[in-house]
Amino acid sequence: MNQRANFSALPVALDPAKAVYDFTIPANQPWTGIVRRGQVLRIVDVEGQQAVDTLFYALADTSERYSAQDTILEQGAPYVTTGTRLISNIGNVLATVIADTCGRHDTSAGACSCEANTVRFGHHTKYMHACRENFIVAMSRHGMTKRDIVPNINFFMNVPIEPDGKLAIVDGVSRPGDHVDILAAMDVICAISNCPQVNNPCNGFNPTPVRVMIFDPAIA
Amino acid sequence: MSEAAHPAIDTAATIEALRKRYEELKAAGDSAAPRALPPPTEAGAAPLADKDIIHRETIPGGWYATFTIAAGHGLRLVNTSGTGGVSLFAWNARDTSERYNSADTVKIQWTAELRKGRVLFSDMGRVLFSIVEDTTGAHDTIVGGSTPASNLRKYGRADLRSTRENMLLAAAKHGLGLRDLAPVISFFAPVAVGEDGALGWRDGVVKAGDFVDLRAELDLIVAVSNCPHPLAPDTAFDPGPVEAILHRLPMPAADDLCRTATAEARRGFENNAAYALA
Q: Which end of chain B has fewer CB atoms at under 10 Å, N or C?
């Protein structure tokens, strides 16, 4: 839990021209990438109001992975924002959110799936593309299966939990170009589903591309 | 992933139609649930007859237990000592890749307030458990259970028993491991989320003798951990025992509360029924 101190001297601004990796994930599509310890992953909501379902796994042993409950408990609050340490299922810091132009990201509501969609929106939505389909395909490249998928972070998705427990996915609060910067505290695999959901407002009913960049502060 | 599979949604009319349908569903979800859900079970109500009890086990403070439960049977957790939090995780006994999904459970039902009349969903759009009796109506699946780190913060020691390690041990007894675990639900854990998003604990809600009755809706493997919730106000690690009682329940009636309280529950049980036939 002491890794944070090791990363106190951070670049205050990252120049996109100096990214060591730069890719635009098309609407509805998955992505995985390896972010090395000390590198910064930037996720850009290019057009705004686009949910980006995101998971992290320790590269050295993928049975260690992001834990929403550990992250919420450690932080004492149920949303992800600047300063949130993303904690693994065995209590280690995977990464820290070091910049966030949006302000609040969900980590309670998880990813959409064909199966859950039938319950949420009706059986007629079973055969619509969903985040879990993306995760399964993307994570198969790293030897992982459905078993390895756990409740994730939904960057740029707004799911307020009200004092009475009521919870709803409301319109995304992100504007075009909003981004989060995530500093890896260990070598991690990041898996993203650029959410294809059109049955609720998480994508403004119109899925759009997102851009991922990786910066190496040693050369940025 | 072809274009044909994802037809472009680029007209304002399409966006508007999708939004309208969503808002209708949400309005139905918001208004139907509170109307249908009864108050918490009264203390002393719903007694179990000896002939209906299949197995009973006292789980000492700090310990865990696992059970296999046939669909239709009940698991009663009795908080005999009034301890602050008893955590649970469950897998489909037929295919353990199907398991409790906290996110789907709160998202599908539009609420993190899980109480009598609500259900617990798997990751496959099916119902694992119905909450058929419940004296507290105060359970938590947002924060979950204790960990070595939370024990260190709370009690000054990381080597005390924790729900994290209990769940790993329970999973192992069924050939399962770290990859098979995911966020848990903690009963008797009145976690409050403030307007500002800060997490708190409502004192005075959990009482000795509180119980929750869960009806298995698939054949399940269940893990129960008796460690205090990390936000519970205890300052010395000394949890009391809880009683786990497996018991027979009558067949659910056609108007069964949990099966009919919401449109979402109805659809979840439709998925269960189709699976049972497959």
A: C
What amino acid occupies position B185? Answer: I
CA distances from A135 to A31, A50, A132, A148, B148 (A): 8, 17, 5, 10, 30
- Closest by CA position to B128, among listed B258, B277, B278, B262: B258
Q: Tell me how far apart the alpha carbons of residues B129 and B182 are, in angstroms, rounded to a whole number.
A: 17
Beta-bridge partners for A189:
A34, A57
The pLDDT score that the predictor gives to residue B128 is 98
Task: Report ipTM (2 d.p.).
Answer: 0.92
Give kind and range of the element (H or E) at residue A214: strand A210-215
At position A57, the amino acid (one-letter code) is: Y
Q: Distance between the two ends of chain A, CA-based, in angstroms?
A: 26
Burial A87-124 (b: 16+ CB within 10 A, else e): bbbbbbbbbbbbbbebebbbbbbbbbbbbbbbbbbeee
Model confidence pLDDT, tens digit, residues B98-140:
999 999 999 999 899 999 999 999 999 999 999 999 999 999 9
Q: Which of A29, A151, A205 sits opposite B15 (nearest CB)?
A: A205
Q: Tokens for B66? A: 């696992």
Q: Is B65 on the interface with A (CB under 8 A)?
A: no
Instruction: List pLDDT tens digits, range B147-195.
Output: 999 999 999 999 999 999 999 999 999 999 999 999 999 999 999 988 8
**Contacts A3 to B, Cβ<8 Å:** none
**Structural domain of B173:** 49-277
Taking the C-alpha atoms of residue A35 and residue A188, their distance in angstroms, rounded to an integer, is 5
- Structure pTM? 0.93
In a domain, B27, yes or no: no
- Whether B149 contacts A91, CB under 8 Å: yes
Q: What is the DSSP letter of A60?
A: T
User: Per the domain annotation, does B127 fall within a domain?
Assistant: yes
Residues of chain B with C-beta less than 8 angstroms from the C-beta of A204: 15
Structure tokens at A42: 């930037």
Number of domains in chain B: 1
Q: How many CA atoms lie within 13 A of B46 on its CB side?
A: 22
**Cβ atoms within 10 Å of B26's Cβ, excluding its own:** 16
CA distance B278 to B274: 6
Query: Does the residue B247 lie in any domain?
Result: yes
Identify the residue among B3, B6, B30 best suited for mutation to test binding to A, counting A beta carbons within 10 A and taking the highest.
B6
Q: B149: closest CA among A69, A185, A7, A106?
A: A69
B209: left (phi over 0), alpha (psi -120 to 50) or beta: left
**Which residues from chain A sit within 8 angstroms of residue B113, using beta carbons?**
164-166
